[in-house]
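Query structure, 254 tokens:
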């Protein structure tokens, strides 16, 4: 049976079944597994063994251990995305940050040293999604101001600019564009956001940052609105090639 066959038979969306099968964005309930076993004709001792595993399972994805410093709902979606486009406003995007930059940010947010360490560890774990072999296509628009805000610490600025260059030149799947301060006011001033795309049959979604925690946006109109802002930002920003040149000069001249 194809994924669509099963989804139609159970009156589920193909996306829901896909989430269950990958185990990335959806952890099935006993009722859901029971419905699958019934459809697949699994009976007797084998059925009970599978349901016992479901009931006894206490496995949780890694990001639930960092819910004090991460948005678990967002990171769960990030882990299952095949494409991520992000604009982080006056901050360097999370997946591009060096540990020292993350620590500086955490302290600026008022976190104690224990929380700072946890935030650095969580961000490093998230950044594995950009490692070789990952299917994610990543595109970030970075404000020049995000880097200039740490210019008082020249070592930090140099290391952060160098890290972005390393990621942008190390993989064809990673694209970075720098948005110069000289661009003036632009549509991104409404705030940071990300647009995430998934495999076939799974709807795109957006994540919009806010002071009291971000929110996931699923309506087609809202996601389309974020895409329009994204298109405007990429037109205004320097090209990927020019961005690498600017960042290299920034790293060398500081």
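Result returned for the query:
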């Amino acid at each position: 049976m194809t994924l669509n066959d099963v989804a139609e038979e159970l009156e589920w969306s193909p996306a829901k079944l896909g989430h269950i099968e990958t185990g990335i964005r959806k952890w099935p309930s006993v009722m859901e597994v029971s419905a699958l076993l019934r459809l697949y004709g699994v009976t007797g001792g084998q059925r009970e063994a599978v349901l016992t595993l479901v009931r006894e399972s206490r496995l949780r994805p890694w990001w639930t251990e960092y819910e004090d410093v991460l948005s678990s709902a967002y990171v769960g979606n990030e882990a299952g995305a095949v494409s991520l486009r992000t604009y982080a406003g006056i901050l360097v995007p999370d997946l591009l940050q060096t540990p020292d930059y993350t620590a500086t940010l955490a302290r600026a947010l008022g976190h104690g040293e224990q929380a700072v360490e946890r935030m650095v560890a969580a961000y490093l774990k998230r950044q594995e999604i950009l490692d070789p072999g990952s299917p994610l296509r990543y595109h970030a628009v970075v404000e020049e101001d995000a880097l200039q805000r740490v210019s008082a610490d020249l070592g930090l600025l140099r290391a952060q600019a160098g890290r972005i260059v390393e990621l942008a030149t190390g993989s064809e799947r990673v694209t970075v564009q720098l948005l110069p301060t000289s661009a003036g006011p632009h549509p991104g001033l409404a705030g940071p956001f990300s647009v995430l795309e998934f495999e076939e049959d799974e709807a795109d979604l957006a994540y919009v940052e806010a002071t009291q925690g971000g929110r996931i946006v699923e309506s087609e109109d809202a996601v389309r609105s974020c895409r329009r802002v994204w298109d405007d930002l990429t037109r205004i920003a320097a090209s990927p090639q020019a961005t690498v040149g600017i960042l290299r000069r920034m790293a060398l001249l500081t």
